Amino acid sequence: MRLSILAPLAAILAVANGNPMGRRALAIHESVKAVPAGFAHAGAVSPAQEITLRIALAQNDIAGLEAKTYAVSDPANALYGQHLTRQEVPEFVKPSAETVSAVSEWLSENGITAKSISPAGDLLQISLSVSKADALLSTQFSTFTHIASGKTSIRTLAYSVPVSLQSHIQFVHPTVAFVPPLSGLPGPRAAPSTNAVPASCEDIVNPTCLQAMYGIPSAKATSSASNVIGVAGYLDEFANSVDLGLFLSNLRTDLVNSTFSLQTIDDGSNDQTLDDAGIEADLDIEYTVGIAGGVPVTFISVGDDSVDDVDGFIDIVNSILAEPSGITVLTTSYAFNEEDLPISLAVGMCNAYMQLGAVGISVLFASGDGGVSGGQPTTCTTFVPTAPGDCPFITSVGGSTGLPPQVAASLSGGGFSNFFPTPTYQAGDVAAYIASIGDQYSGLYNTSGRGLPDVAAQAENVEIAWMGSFWLVGGTSCASPIFASMIALVNDRLIAAGKPVLGFLNPFLYSPAGRGAFTDITSGNNPGCGTDGFSAKAGWDPVTGLGTPNFNLLLAAVGL
């Protein structure tokens, strides 16, 4: 087995030293040391088989966009709230004329025509035979199998590009990215408040419980098309209208007849056969429509025909940027383990989500259900952060549970990124937490990484309607749509007051005013990787972040 794994790499390195197409000097651009755990080499691929590759070009001024995004998102900055337009963002992201010319010339030399597949023109797509791809990238593509799912893919362990183009090309994909299929639907499991929270909320949490726990208003929002919650759907998970009707007629009678709209990407769909209802999709829709009453909700169904080959995580950004839809909040209940992505792809995804923040969209991701072991409980030797919640431009939502004062849900994903450094807005919090635990878990996590989650909300014993019946589910995939709904309701009040929506949340959340809107959680932990995980403590922690939100305090924090 070991020889069969190492042989393809040896072959790749041998080819990479050659130069079969043209006379350009080549250099290895990306590589992995061996076939990643969970995958197996499954043999050669026909040289005539056609594959599709995407070339991410160097972006013109991504540092400038980052600075601008922070400026318009920081309450202490004079530019706060002055979000960029969808026409302004591409000026930062588009590749330079030199980059476009250099890469186009290289492809033309090899008889290849590319098409742009992103609004800013920074992502090109080419289709070519495996033999031509091997020659172009001085590599050897092979077939690999994801052992658990049986899914096969064509990948390589290293590829090269001309030395003269290394500064112009971020990455070529899919090449060395061995990304496991998305998984992790919520399973049966099981915020500041007063004694008004019904005792029944200890065992069954519904919208009434959440209103009592977090001060969420029952009054309907008044803004319309300018404030929309986008709910990202993957894995052919369908949001069922009948289940939503059942949920509302029993648990939010004042919202009966409320519904959601549909947007499809990558050949997505939303089958309304009741037996095909998705438990995750139903949860996300019911706890947006049913919590943010009056706020329009769009279910964004991302199909299997993804252009980005990371299940549509970048495609969804490009679609939202290309087709303005009024979305001000985007919530996603799916994630990868950070270690399953090459850093180039993780950075590319993060830069894409930063663009949403720049135009005034709050991007929320569930932090994962495996504690310190990532998206789901798994065997691990070092702690596993999740992605893209590790991206500093995303608000990562962890889990809490119980009657107030709440405790950390043990499933709450949390930790520190190995890819992204600690952002300025949470530097003091991360340093304080790490100092408080001393050398505990030394070597198991990155002490200089971006910490997650940022906030927390209810993640156990959440009641939903699914396939015509009521169920209890749990996971941070409950927490993310709940918090997204609260942000949308705050946006509604801001719009009514003639103020801009919140947009990229984190600089506000970690500001003195922002953090004052959260109830600190100081007990509980998130076990994983054979450890007890991190412990919730006073202040920010990598289990529940800043704590659970209080709606009225959020309003006060934004000056309402």
UniProtKB/TrEMBL annotation:
Gene3D superfamilies: Peptidase S8/S53 domain (3.40.50.200). The active site is at 280 (charge relay system), 284 (charge relay system), 477 (charge relay system). InterPro entries: Peptidase_S8/S53_dom_sf, S53_propep, Sedolisin_dom, Tripeptidyl-peptidase_I. Ca(2+) binds at residues 520-521, 539, 541. SUPFAM superfamilies: Protease propeptides/inhibitors, Subtilisin-like. Its cofactor is Ca(2+). Its main location: secreted. GO terms for molecular function: metal ion binding; serine-type endopeptidase activity; tripeptidyl-peptidase activity. Binds 1 Ca(2+) ion per subunit. Pfam families: Pro-kuma_activ (PF09286). This is Family S53 protease. It comes from Mycena rosella (Pink bonnet).
